Amino acid sequence: MKLKELKVYNLSMELGEKIWSDVNTWDYYSKDTIGRQFIKAVDSVAANISEGYGRYHYCENINFCYYSRGSLFEAKTWTEKSFRRGLISEKEHAEIINELVVIAKMLNNYLKSIGKINNTVGEPVPDYQEINDKNDADIWHNDQFPMINDQ
Predict the structure, then answer these.
(1) pTM (2 decimals)?
(2) Which of 25, 58, 67, 83 to pair with 90, CA 20 to 30 A apart?
(3) Which of 40-54, 56-70, 85-99, 107-121 has the lowest mean pLDDT?
């Protein structure tokens, strides 16, 4: 399987482009403060998936997917701050959060699939479950993410 065939990677790339175009409409101060951080966090999700994918050993791929998951949480924070400060609408806020939830679930399933075959090097096993329901359960309070419940 090629990187561009990974749905979790493609969704992450699409979200990065959406956030980029949203932030581009903000005033200079908002772009320079929240906007930069928001774009870096969202872009880092796809960037870490691709970097891990290109690593020699599946353990490194897993490690970079954990970085990607951390960036998802950071993106959630910047989404909340953008909403609270009136930079995005309630509708945009809900759409972004839903996309982050879908990506988080897909990333967790992708993580579970990495290294399932002993000779997995470079190209992971593509058996992760695709999540299509964007209105699925609240990922931020899900048992898959026990460390989130502490926040």
Answers:
(1) 0.76
(2) 67
(3) 107-121
Nearest by Cα to 51 from 36, 66, 31, 38: 66
CA dist., res. 95 & res. 120, Å (int):
35
Helix or strand (DSSP H, E) at 105: helix 90-113
Q: Say which CATH topology domain 3-116+130-145 has.
A: de novo design (two linked rop proteins) (1.20.1440)
Percent of the chain whose pLDDT exceeds 70 = 77
Average pLDDT on 81-92 reads 97
- Please list, in sequence order, all residues whose beta carbon lies within 8 angstroms of the beta carbon of residue 46, skipping any fewer than 6 positions away: 9, 12, 13, 16, 68
Cβ contact 15:95 at 8 Å: no
> Higher confidence at residue 39 or residue 1?
39
Residue 119 is classified by DSSP as T
